[in-house]
Amino acid sequence: MPESDPVRRLCAAVTAVPDQDPSSDENAADRRAASGGPSHERLVDVVRHACLAAGLDRSFLQEFGPPGDRAEPETLLLVLPAGANEARVVRDITHRLDDAATGAASSPAGAPRLVIAFDQGLTRLTGNGFEGTVVTAVHRMCTDARARTALTVHAGPGVAVVLSAALLDDLAPPGPGGRDLSAFAPLTVELPDRLIAAWLHAPGRRFEIPARPSEK
What we know:
Elements: E1 7-16, H1 28-35, H2 40-53, E2 60-64, E3 75-79, H3 86-103, E4 113-126, E5 129-131, H4 133-142, H5 145-152, E6 158-164, H6 165-171, E7 184-190, E8 195-201
Parallel strand pairs: 4-6
Antiparallel strand pairs: 1-3, 1-4, 2-3, 4-5, 6-8, 7-8
């Protein structure tokens, strides 16, 4: 199919993090399957339900690479409709994923432990799905080692959120009084051709867009 014209969209990447990173344990995937831990199919189901609960049924869900590829964590790309209220979308999807994680704590399948990363930029639709620098960026942010570590050191289910610094500036522009970034940690993520700045919100505290002091 011919490529579409570039369109600026909000994109997100989501991955599930097991209790132990499979790259350091050859038997982790087998143990995860036996214990009913996070699976590719379950990750897709959780993300789809989160989009529906957030009123984002028109979002496009796409896989990064083949499921089961042990070289990379299984990751989903979420492309949001153009013109969406980005602050609402980021908050609502994150909250719905967090609800799914904490609500499944007593489930026999276990609770998902997720990383979601957001950025915005130009995308184009090709025969292979959505492509663009922003697609690469959210994938790299989502699979960043520090974001995954934030989950492995957190006792219990939860969602780690990574926002590009550029997106955070759009959602909560810096002002004379500054912003409350006490719940965030700075992050530098390596892309194939450059480094980008990002912010990491660790699990264990309900995610909110940073507020200016006067907005509290």
